[in-house]
Design a protein that fits this description.
The protein is of the alpha+beta class. Helices cover about 20% and strands about 35% of the residues.
């Protein structure tokens, strides 16, 4: 789950910009011609990122990258929020999501259990502890997994029940206008907002 030297340099440039805006740099990835910057509210915050904040981050980061020019050639800057089901790539990600249900796939294809789902109950710089259930004697079945041995991991969001057929109930509030601004709260079902800007 390590990053390239280019991404490490980009992280050092972007982190103080995002922090100055009162937000948290959740992740930064470079995939081909796209630089994806994922930002979130500070850990523990109950609100989510809105489009105005994403647009502000996009402008601020784009301005600094134009000045520093750390990436040769053309690329697209994409600024987004993590969404309700978020990828866990770093020890900080795991530590931030303790108490959440997560799904994990291990790197080793020969592992007895390559895929695990359970409650993330602890995390440190090297390991994540997942409670996958309980043993016959009632003791918790906890698995301590090296983070370096994880191929993919993400949080699991429990979606609410589907609406009953037949339309809204009598007296129910009408749906919000399409002009309402979407946000991506930590426990909402909103689509993850993002903004993009192409850099010459």
């Amino acid at each position: 789950m390590g990053d390239s030297p280019t991404v490490d340099r980009l992280r050092s440039i972007v982190t103080p910009i995002v922090a100055d805006l009162g937000l948290d740099l959740y992740d930064i990835e470079q995939r081909g011609g796209t630089l994806r910057v994922t930002v979130d509210t500070q850990p523990g915050s109950e609100r989510g990122i809105d489009l105005d904040e994403l647009a502000l981050v996009t402008r601020s980061v784009s301005r600094e990258l134009d000045h520093v020019d750390p990436i040769p050639g053309r690329y697209t800057l994409e600024v987004t929020s993590p969404g309700v089901e978020r990828a866990l790539r770093t020890p900080e990600h795991f530590a931030r999501e303790i108490g959440k249900e997560i799904s994990v796939r291990l790197r080793d294809p020969g592992a007895a259990e390559r895929r695990l789902t359970g409650l993330l109950i602890a995390a440190d710089a090297d390991t994540a502890t997942i409670r996958v259930g309980f043993l016959d004697d009632g003791e918790p079945d906890d698995r301590v997994i090296p983070i370096a041995g994880i191929d993919r991991a993400r949080t699991i969001f429990e979606w609410g029940p589907a609406p009953k057929p037949g339309g809204p109930r009598k007296g129910a509030r009408p749906p919000k206008s399409s002009n309402d601004r979407p946000t991506a709260g930590r426990d909402t079902q909103d689509i993850t907002p993002s903004t993009t800007e192409e850099t010459p």
